[in-house]
Every structure is written in structure tokens, then in C-alpha cells.
Design brief:
six-stranded mixed β-sheet; mainly beta; globular; four-stranded antiparallel β-sheet
Length: 228
């Protein structure tokens, strides 16, 4: 049983809600972030049925999604220290021990994943043949900055291995903790280029919490003007 990459799944729509939950008075090592995402696939996945192991850490958002298959385990996976259900933690513990290719550890991993699939898990999603609408959840930890009491997070849209098709759209809504003051927020088409920021971020105060929102339509326009 193995983890293999799921590469280039085309989508026509993604809607993501990000809720940041405060875990202390600002002196805590991190806050917790709950991400809920709905995705519309542009085409069926090239499998009869696949179980996706979705990202559970900030770094994992920048790596391909992985799927659970019947082959041998070939790689290890690491996770950020965020609170999880008992079954999810069993999966993380099993994955952390995959530096050596041992039958006993493979069996432990398979059993942990089976329990996670049957229970309420924020990291496992089974896609059946013909299914186009996917909805999943995962949790990440915020990262403290050099300024005391200040935290940040990064979420990709679309997630790695999901590719937005021309004419598609992405909507992202983020809800800050009550009492938190926004320092800055940006959506970059190229994470390494500040000049690619998406315009028209909306912000509102709801119930004492800052709410941020973006809507991006991937539909390029070509305009030509000329005269004589």
C-alpha cells in the first residue's frame, strides 16, 4: 500500500473558507487554521476509485496531493504540530516512521489509514468514479513572525496538483479571530512576485471579527486597437 502523487487534476471552480481560531493571548506558539474547500473537477480522475490524503501542514500545501494505492510505501511524509483527532494522529505517527521499508510499519500505516477513512478525518477523501464535486477539510498551524504576538499563514488556491482551467474561478474568504488586527493580506498569482497581487480584496467587520474576501476569474482578455 503506497502514497503516489496525484498530478494535474483540472478544475473549473474552487471556493475556500479559512477560519483562524485563537489558542491563547498572543504568547502561544501558534493559532489553528481550519480550511474548508469545495472543488469542481473539469474531468473525471483517471482511476476507478481513489483515496486522497490531503495536506495537513503549511509546507504540504506546496507539495502535490497524494493518493493511497495498493503498492509498496516509498516515501515519508512530515506534518506540522497541530491538534488532530485520534485517528488522524495515528496516521501521522505511522507516516513519521516510514524512513525504513518494513512490513510491520506498512501494516501499521494501512490500519491507521483505514480507521481514518471510516472515521471523521480532516485529511482523507475518497473520490468515486464520475464524481466531480469534491468537498474537504484540513487544519494547519499559523507561523509566528519576528514581531511578538504576530502570526501569519499561507494557503494555495488552487491547491498543488489542482489546475484552474480558462474561464474558471476561485473564491476565498478568510475570518480572523475576534480581537485580532489585520497587518496585511495579499493574494499573489506568483508567490515570488509581489507585482502579481490580485486587486479588489474586500474587507468587512462581522461580529467583531475581520472578514476578508477575494474572487478571481481566470479568463484572459486580448484587446487590440489600431488606426490609420
Amino acid at each position: 500500500m503506497a502514497l503516489s502523487p496525484l498530478i494535474n487534476a483540472p478544475i473549473t471552480r474552487q471556493d475556500t473558507v479559512i477560519e483562524i481560531v485563537r489558542k491563547g493571548d498572543g504568547a502561544q506558539p501558534h493559532d489553528e487554521v481550519y480550511v474548508t474547500t469545495s472543488v469542481t473537477l473539469a474531468a473525471d480522475l483517471d482511476v476507478q476509485e481513489v483515496t486522497l490524503l490531503l495536506p495537513m501542514s503549511s509546507s504540504a500545501n506546496h507539495k502535490p496531493l497524494i493518493r493511497y494505492t495498493e503498492d509498496a510505501v516509498t516515501e515519508a511524509v512530515t506534518f506540522d504540530p497541530v491538534d488532530r483527532s485520534v485517528y488522524d494522529q495515528a496516521v501521522a505517527d505511522a507516516l513519521a516512521g516510514l524512513q525504513e521499508d518494513e512490513r510491520e510499519k506498512q501494516a501499521k500505516l494501512a490500519k491507521a489509514i483505514a480507521k481514518a477513512i471510516q472515521g471523521v478525518s480532516q485529511a482523507v477523501l475518497t473520490v468515486k468514479p464520475g464524481q466531480r464535486e469534491l468537498r474537504f477539510f484540513y487544519t494547519i498551524a499559523t507561523t509566528p513572525t519576528e514581531t511578538a504576538g504576530q502570526f501569519e499563514l499561507q494557503v494555495l488556491a488552487p491547491l498543488a496538483s489542482f489546475i484552474l482551467q480558462p474561464g474558471g474561478s476561485i473564491g476565498v474568504t478568510a475570518l480572523l479571530p475576534r480581537g485580532a488586527a489585520l497587518v496585511e493580506a495579499e493574494a499573489l498569482q506568483d508567490p515570488n512576485n509581489p507585482g502579481t497581487a490580485l486587486p479588489n480584496m474586500q474587507q468587512a467587520e462581522l461580529g467583531g471579527r475581520s472578514c476578508l474576501g477575494w474572487l478571481w476569474q481566470y479568463d484572459p482578455m486580448f484587446r487590440i486597437r489600431y488606426n490609420y
